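Weekend entry, working from home. Most of the wet-lab plans are on hold until the incubator is repaired, so I used the time to fold the two sequences that have been sitting in the queue since the last round of cloning. Logging both here for the record. First:
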Amino acid sequence: MQTTDLNLQDEQKELLLSVRDLTVSFSVDDGTFTAADSISFDVKTGETVGLVGESGCGKSVTALSIPRLIPSPPGTIESGEIWFEGQDLMTLNSSALRDIRGRDISMIFQEPLSALSPLHRIGQQMIETILLHQDKPRKQAWEIAEGWLKKVGIPDAGDRMFAYPFQLSGGMQQRIMIAMALMLSPRLIIADEPTTALDVTTQAQIFALIRDMKQHQTSMLLITHDMGVVWEMCDRILVMYASRIVETGSREDVFFNPRHPYTIGLLQAIPKLTGLREPLKDIPGQVPSPFDYPKGCHFQARCVFAMDRCRESSPPAYDCGQGHRAACFLMEGRPA
């Protein structure tokens, strides 16, 4: 009994982030819809977790909810708990959240131009983050910021410190966002499509920096459509569809032994590096509108295995063994 208790304590110590039953809704002119429905997952210290799924599934909303950056209105976190290093972020006031954002939790936004202030020079925005969270002279903060611009491959970094965001290309803006997210060595990095606007060479450079951060026990929640990036960077994978997480597991479990029909469809759509020219397989249909999610399983209309019960009730997450779980009735009764 004592050994079991010690194992549970060790497991709890490894947890950096724990999200439980997170539900987020938005109220707009057309009505109210649920963007994230009862989302639960964990991120351990030093772990990179990939969040994948088609556009409109709720990935970015889930990510923005963690540091409580959901714009309100129109967004509302209806329920749930977000535990980070032993404290529930849902209970913190604005001042306490500002202390955590940037220092302990950094975010790389999908649209850097909307995240960077158009009225302030790059250097000013970067050193503001350093001066807010660290007791350093302004000159030293400037040197740190310029050094990080060089690390992420910004040419003429000293000159770029005096530029405004609109004077830079989308790729440069994205690299600046990445530098700002990494430079304080946060405990958790939330990266929403961090390398979409970057060429392959720069992507490799950025991923090398992130791997180096992992050696310092930095964790990451990585949102991406690129399954190649997921394989390269992630330890575990969360598959999201139409506001719900439908499968979770290690990288090897999800890639080599997918259990949910949606995950299988995503993997079948990846181009194969073979000598044969085979047509890509697609998932028929489209992600349903969040205003009109079907009753039961949200994937039912696109699933070739759909049964009557799929149209009546939502499947629970069945245990497939060793932390691998899939929310599909096909898993019922199968050995874990």
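Second, folded right after the first finished:
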Amino acid sequence: MARKKFRNSQRHVSSSERSFQEYVLNQPLSQTTRTELVRLIRAGEDTYLELKLKLSNSEKISQEIVALANTAGGTVVFGVTDQLLIQGVRYPGRVQEELVRICREEIVPPLVPLIDTVAFDNGKRIVALEVQGKNRPYRTANGKFYIRTGPEKREATREELSQLIDEARPLYYENIPLRGFKAEHFDDAVLWSFVGAFDANGSSSHGVYETKTVLKRDLLLAVGRGEDFVPTVAGVLLFGKDERIKSVLPAAGIEVTRYSGAYGSSEVVETKRLEGNLLSLYDSSLEFIEKYCDLFKHRLGKSKEQEEVVAPRPAYHLYSIKEALANLVMHRDLALREIPTTISIFDDSIQFENPRRTQGFVPPASRAIRFGITQRVNPQISSIFRRREYGVNIPQGGLPMILKQSELFSGKKAELYTTNDRFSLKINAG
């Protein structure tokens, strides 16, 4: 196996105690490493080693690979019988090609396979696939997650899957399948207005394709083999019905509050919990902001009459607020379920706060995003939400535009910080 080398270990060590380090190689195989490979094969399967006689069922093989990747990595060896005899494979080149295809097409996110064919003096050849789980959690094409316990694989429990998601970078949660959410739970008005906008003839595709087909085949927002249909979190957030999302993804809502002063300790004037798909959240959040604030495209000069007003409504740059709200909606890390998404309106500022993994993000990334160098937490959601066809008219420029234009409008710099798994943006009134 390329780039690897087996370490010495004694046969009497139990499989449960053997470390994956025994399987880590760092140079091409030689006769010595073939001997070590044979010794490990004869020790039998364990958490890090799976033995197969042949590659005959790609779905089962993808499950085995996913289980290894979600646990601690490991190796799958083809050409070995249940009795631990090296039988070899007849066409190792075909096995390698099929393994590459499985890792690329039947595992999400795709795996980069490390594959080697090991030849013996008697002419028999075995194929060894090394599995590294760097971007957990992994799932099969039909949306199932597996882990490995000893020599056996099994579907991950809800608690185990939650732990895998919590350990992952926030980039991948949007691709998690959400079982229990059916085709009838999607908002046809939002989905088909989006799909119909891309029809060359200007007519809706509603009469041509089913919801399942469009979401799974065209938008890549659902998974499943054949008639099986399991939408992803991204698909649900973008096109799900408001009331269904509230019951299935309660953490997807936004808390909006108007305070009577300049601090969070001030008296609350009004607070709401907004629920629904991303289009509904954006529209209802903007409506709440406009209830208490004035939004302008340009800074307005004050007339003599306006200067005499005792308590003017706070004013903000329209495009800065819209872009800040869009970023809030798109780039949440819902894996951090205990941290809510909030919008706080004060007498002199608006604060947008989102759950976002602090580890691995700051401090370099928090400085870089000021210059437009961003880490897109949910790229699949963002690519659809930002299109006009989805129904939201979002200005261009991202965070650099917000920082620049909000300061030009108010004369005060916006405040940006990330701490305790929270991303916070404060825009001052003009």
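Plan for Monday: verify the second prediction. The domain at 20-168 is CATH 3.30.950.30 (Methyltransferase, Cobalt-precorrin-4 Transmethylase; Domain 2).
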